[in-house]
Amino acid sequence: MIAFFIRRCIQVVIVMLTVGLIAFSLFTYVGDPVSNMVGVDTTTEERLAIYEKLGLNDPFYVQYWHYLGRVVRGQFGTSFRLGVSVTELFRERLPATLELSAVAALFALLFGIPLGVYTGLHREGWASRLILTLSLIGISLPTFLIGILMIFLFGVILGWLPSFGRGDVVQLGFWSTGFLTISGLKSLIMPSVTLGMFQMTLILRLVRSEMLEVLRTDYIKFARARGLSNRAVNFSHALKNTLVPVITITGLQLGGIIAFAIITETVFQWPGMGLLFVQAVSFVDIPVMSAYLMLVAFFFVLINLIVDMLYYLVDPRLRLERGAAGGHG
Amino acid sequence: MVKKGIGILLLAGLIGLMCFQPALAKNFKYSTSGDIMTIDPHSQNEGPNNAMKNNVYECLVHRDYNLEVEPSLAVRWEVINPTTWRFYLRKGVKFHEGEPFTADDVVFSFKRNKNSQSDMNAYLATVKEVKKIDAHTVDYITKGPDPILLQNLTAHFIMSKSWSEKHNCTEPVRGSTDEIYSTRHSNGTGPFILVERVPDTRTVLKVNPDWWNTPNKVHNLTNATFVPIANAATRVSALLTGEVDMMFPVPLQDVPRVNASPGVKAMQGPELRTIFLGFDQHRDELLDMPGSGKNPFKDVRVRKAFYQAINIEAIHKKVMRKASTPSGMMIAPGIIGWNEELYKRFPYDPEASKKLLAEAGYPDGFSITFDCPNDRYVNDEAICQAVVPMLARIGIKATLNAQTKGLHFDKIGLKQGNNTSFYMLGWTPGTYDGLNPLVNLMTVDGQGHGTWNCGKYTNPRVEELTKMLAVEVNAEKRAKMMYEAHKIHREDFGHIPLHQQALAWGVRDYVDIKQPANDSVWLRYVNITK
């Protein structure tokens, strides 16, 4: 078990180093940060001096080595665009993205699972067909379009919800939360629905197909034959068995939601990591871009590690193999 | 019963308070696509940043909304000798945290602004030294006679020496080292005080009740909030719902909708930025014609052919939806040196263009790459897309290479050695003077010249005139030299000026705001009439 864990950790480190190298070498091809940092009147000599000062003239492996040294010490540098340290920027923005992602995931689960169960149980009903058709729209419309349409409907025409921003937030230590104010909660509604829409449709269809599959199995037939109530059969037995793949998928998707809230954050001007990344790309803000990519890689790798460890704990076959290889007679 | 009575009283009191407040507080919330980068006045030289500085900090002289220069922290000045300007400072001015404004602060601000890390030091390039004469008099010593010193001093902001020393920010930074105190905190003499700055989220200001010019103030605000909203559609929605009181820029296709919506209107006016196209005129062999040994752009006939192939009226009507002013000159009306005769464009004549190309030896035209930004100027990519078929009509096969501004400026600029044959660029002279584009766009000779002269256009007489203009103080002589230099460039077809783009500000009906031609939102000219 320990050997497995250590092996996985070594893989984590290798993956992180590779991602870091690839991300960093990409930046030599991405625009000129100096043009964005200075005004049009800056002279040639001053620009060359800036290149020298930022270390942009060194070959990329030298720049990368310096970067690794700083990362290990927790210094990600200072944003070219805002002049603020990157770690502080992330600390300010991460709560916004995490709250949004958590609410989006919750929305996806709370609507996806019950709707999936319903459409699984009542396959031929008109309500099921309607839900499935609408869910197709949820998958096929691009995120930003859903976002803009919602702003137009609920913000401009009906005036129920704020059209941008996070509302008033309450600062608890370093974590800024929008859960404790009315405007904060109102601002969360549209972005989280927009972000969670795709996941919800995914979960809905997954749960539905799993339900249809499980309801055909023998043990369900036997349970019905024995006379258990519908509720007991559908929820205590069928649903539980459908949830295993759903949890796997949701866990993996959660990493994706956090990393790719970019579009939603841009549409709603949500002050999170995604918006920061988009602005960093247009501005060629290298410290922010490289720190963001490392962070995202780290999230994915961490979640995968946790999922792998859970598999190891849950699946007895993996454990048995270890025992056999250990050499029991 | 008593409890109920008290409850009702409290409720009434609360409601009364809530109704009372808005009548006293005049809040102004405004938005644009990008945030300001820092509140340090000597750090970044960029339009929206400079506009924000003018709310909090001040200079010796101030540019009002008609772009005229007027006294500010200096009450009057005199030229003692050709290289010395004496400024008499205003008495009784205080910084926001209470420090008195004196000559020491001016000397300190000069040194700080001249620092190599300051992006604003180009405005003080001609000033050698600032000497304190007494507590309220300073001398600016220039390297040579400097006719545009006052224009430049409108961007030389004054900081408090004692405050900067107390907070360890006596030198500005360019974003490569750790943030300093003045990046997010400020202490100026201006009409507004910075309350809060959260990067990428909001910048909050409140009125400065002790501002020296309060008796003459034009605005009626008590608070102001600036929020960046990157997505154009979201920004327009925020204006329509009233969540912001003003926002800019309004995308051109939304202008009719904004005008038609109740409670909002679109303010449109000309901007000082001139959009133009440039040619590579210095390489012996054009990058797009490897192996041919030729550079067609070295021939004035080819350049003229390109110019006359462009149907600027069509661009004005269809691409810019009439929100542009076609221009024949590299500077806009309002810039010193503008001339009505030079501003008229040559006529659109694609048949003449084809003849000229044939004369120059290219009867079948040739191929080039056309470099264009896609997120910097109003409808920049759309303009370039319109130009491509116009060139095709005269036999030029132009391949459009439109990309984000970071990459575009990288390519056409110094970093990649002006790696371009034909490109689009826009320019606003930071000094509002016609010498600025001559130095930056139309000459190559001399230190600091031609930073954005990506095609390296040069003409010996224009170079000579530019050097003379830098030290000529007589306004009449200057005007003649400026006319001659711009005329030579125009007849050389050194660049193809296209137009001045138009500003489009979306404002709610109860906002009365002045719109200067440099696209700056200056809070001191905002009135809330509700």
Q: Could you spell the SSE succession of chain A in H and E letters?
A: HHHHHHHEEHHHHHHH
Largest interface: A-B, 57 and 60 residues
Our estimate of the beta-strand percent of chain B is: 15-25%
CA radius of gyration of chain A? 25 Å
Q: How many DSSP H or I helices of chain A?
A: 14
Terminal CA distance of chain A? 20 Å
- Give the helix level of chain B as a range of percent: 25-40%
Query: How would the global form of chain B be characterised?
Result: globular
Uncertain parts of chain A: 323-329
Strand content of chain A: under 5%
* Computed structural class of chain A: mainly alpha
Let me know the average pLDDT of chain B: 89
Structural class by secondary-structure content of chain B: alpha+beta
As an assembly, this protein is heterodimer
Ends distance of chain B? 40 Å
Number of helices of chain B: 17
Strand order of the largest sheet of chain A: 1-2
List keywords for this structure.
heterodimer, A: 329 residues, mainly alpha, two-stranded antiparallel ribbon, 2 strands, 75% helix, 2% strand, globular, B: 530 residues, alpha+beta, 11-stranded mixed beta sheet, 4-stranded antiparallel beta sheet
How would you characterize the overall build of this protein?
The complex is a heterodimer of chains A (329) and B (530). With 329 residues, chain A is mostly helical. Chain A has 14 helices and 2 strands. In chain A, β1 and β2 form a beta hairpin. The longest helix of chain A has 36 residues. Chain A is globular and about 85 Å long. Chain B has 530 residues and is an alpha+beta fold. In chain B, β2 and β3 form a beta hairpin. In chain B, α9 packs antiparallel against α12 and α16 packs antiparallel against α17. The longest helix of chain B has 23 residues. The radius of gyration of chain B is 26 Å and the shape is globular.
Short description:
The complex is a heterodimer of chains A (329) and B (530). By secondary structure, chain A is an all-alpha fold.
